[in-house]
UniProtKB/TrEMBL annotation, chains A, B:
This is DNA-binding transcriptional regulator, AcrR family. Residues 14-74 form the HTH tetR-type domain. It comes from the Bacteria. One of its GO terms (molecular function) is DNA-binding transcription factor activity. Keywords: DNA-binding. Residues 37-56 bind DNA. The keyword Isomerase does not apply. Coiled coil: none annotated.
Amino acid sequence: MVRERPGTGGATARVPTRDVVLAAVRLFTDHGFEATTMDDVAAAGGVSRRSLFRRFGTKEDILFAEHDELFAEVSRHLETAPGTPLDAVFSAARLVLDGYLRDPEVTVPRYRLVRVHPRLRDREVAMTARYQSAFSRYLAARGGGGAPEERSLAAGAAAAALIAAHNHVLRGWLRDPGQEPARVWERYDAAMAFVRRAVGPMLHADGEAPARERVVVAVYPADLGRDELVRRLAAAVDEAGPRG
Amino acid sequence: MVRERPGTGGATARVPTRDVVLAAVRLFTDHGFEATTMDDVAAAGGVSRRSLFRRFGTKEDILFAEHDELFAEVSRHLETAPGTPLDAVFSAARLVLDGYLRDPEVTVPRYRLVRVHPRLRDREVAMTARYQSAFSRYLAARGGGGAPEERSLAAGAAAAALIAAHNHVLRGWLRDPGQEPARVWERYDAAMAFVRRAVGPMLHADGEAPARERVVVAVYPADLGRDELVRRLAAAVDEAGPRG
DNA sequence: CCCTCGTGTGGCATTTAGTGTCAGAGTAGA
DNA sequence: TCTACTCTGACACTAAATGCCACACGAGGG
């Protein structure tokens, strides 16, 4: 690396995080994660080695920087989410999948790197655990009745099942990122419905009426097309007036 | 460190793994994980720095060496366990807890270190993920009927819930290792019974009643957003299987 | 008994991740 | 314009991790 003006300490022009991440992803993919030094990344990203460490901490953190932002976003969402605690957690998980789908340029090559390098895999798993822990604590704090002991146990198991289902669908997409997002969301909704069935009973160990509820009962011909059916249900919901 | 005979490369006397681990745990606990260098560990363990790296790979691996052995033991157990796949996984998980309880000299101080150092925490989480992955694959491969897609989803969620419950009880003991093992096992059995109730139905997603008409019944919080409600209804429709 | 071969170990050199420190450059505000 | 604050780059340094070579020991054959 050739420095034009030794002794020139620039300022103001902040480290372009996104550019650095993309450059790093490219280098890691092309030459391998281990073989790529921080000097290489710094040169490719147009910043100094020192600034690189200041911004990202470690070499692995470069890959997961945007994931950290996503986690922060999800955490914020949890604080202000409407509905029951379970609803909040489900919609938060949806946000995570959306975060992945929105940024395939980083998430897809990262997944391929993660599959190869145990160290990176551990890092990825740790991220997953962070979500799980956050969801678990959220549910335990606001969850239904029952003894505190059983409540936190149920919250932990529910969060774990939810995250597992989420990751199941997510990995399906990461392995084949070419498929239609609509189909991914379809599978995701099905997986979430599955988890909801299993998790629901866990959190209502005893009779605890969770606020006000409404009921939709729809009877329809067995051969009605899926899209048409969904459309009718949506119309019925809208006719029923505002919720709350 | 004073070397008596420079140039003396010993042999034969294999590195006493257990002694080194205990010495390392002590050093990490007394002076901190970061502050303890591999030279320190080597000196305390009575081996050379080079041999230390050969045996354990990294500094963190020293702490988790025995955990790796436990994982190998559990894996072997899975291969030869009697009973249903679910039974096998439950007994395997029991083996894990027993492994912790049997070796408090290492597992307890390690837990305290893990709580403080994010890096070690990630490593611990990765171990948990390895169990979860092994259990999930085991269940998916030998699990009950249903479509392969749903089967692996159910296996993943079940394994996750099981591991979460296991870790819930395990952490309870690690935080207060003085309590009676009998009481720990009591709590563990209760937690496992809880998980079994929730997980059992997940793995037996069978009977689909063929009817001319089908009914959707949705119960939802009154303040749930319109989009989320519609999404759930659509998911419920998809989940109900093909129409016609 | 000696020699040889294989295996495990120690010492040394080297690379590189990661940190502390200081100097310079730019920006905002008085 | 001068000053205070912030961000960046350069340099030095620690320590983890790896490659390489030399040496010690045990086993086996002559």
